[in-house]
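User: Hey, quick favor. My workstation is busy. Could you predict this chain's structure for me?
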Amino acid sequence: MSILKLSEIGYSYDGKSKVLDNINYEFEKGKVYAIVGRSGAGKTTLLSLLSGLASPTAGSIEFDGKDIKEIDRYRYRSQFVGVVFQQFNLLQHLNAIENVELSMRASGKKIDDKRVKAIELLDKVDLDDSLIKRRILKLSGGEQQRVAIARALSFDPDIILADEPTGNLDVTTGEEVMDIFKRLAHEENKCVIIVSHSPDVAKTVDEVYELASLRAKRSRRK
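Assistant: No problem, here it is.
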């Protein structure tokens, strides 16, 4: 059964210029998905819709059988969907543990010992014990990405959304990060949705959805 379903989704910024049109995707728990497409195809816009940061101008998005319009938007974003940003969006003056703890507090979910839970999550994403108390500025890009994933997991969401999670990483580190995502889906039954332009990412996931640029479609018709 789908945890997330997009039905005839459309989006335009001004009511005239369409970015997305008639998108019909379904996502299940236990799988890793890649949404791919050329620059300008609307990948980032679609990610914003999936995360509840924006609303479609046409069609509907259902989470667990319920239109997300009927769910409190803050509750949806802070309890059901974890987002991993391309630029990490971590608080640089805090350490890894503190970044994860802060996300727990923001979610409003009851967690008995936030510090113990944060350390468990950082271990889950293979961040060494010697690094978890370092300030974010002292960590490499790959290490920061691991912290970002742990933060996204901090309130145990059903869905993990990741925006170009390997885009700023070397090949080996990118593969390690993808292994974490696959483990989360296949072993912990998360629904992982990755937006990427990388063919290598697309080769490693369970299912690929390809977005075609509406601009390119219009050009072909001419």
